[in-house]
Amino acid sequence: MKNKKKTIMRIINIIIFILVAFLTFYIIFKKNDIFLIIKNLKQVKIIYIIIACLLMFFYIACEGINIKRILKTLNNKITFLSSFKYASVGFFFSAITPSASGGDPMQLYFMKKDGLPLTHSALAILVELAIF
Predict the structure, then answer these.
(1) For 16-43, how does the pLDDT look when each residue is reduced to its tens digit (9 = 90+)?
(2) Shortest CA distance to 63 belongs to which of 31, 38, 85, 96?
């Protein structure tokens, strides 16, 4: 019974995701010519895209190092990959939520899910915010 309910919820989530994706692309492209966008993308120098991706990765890695150092100060042992995951989650959810308000709560959620104390996680995010 539980598996059937999970399957139904998964199907509903997939349908909602497809609808939101379709709505997003419709809004973006309804007044813009797709061929003009493709033409402009062909004119972009690929080296700039590569540099931008590398710098984004570097930014997220530095934020992950900060999170790891703060949590280590609070006697929590986490790996760099975990701290990188928390930084990536914050970066992603800040990018997709209005006023970048979703990053910190999702970072806290993932830290709690991984077994870190919520008080330490919240303090780490607060200290990181103060550092900025």
Answers:
(1) 999 988 988 888 778 877 788 888 888 9
(2) 85
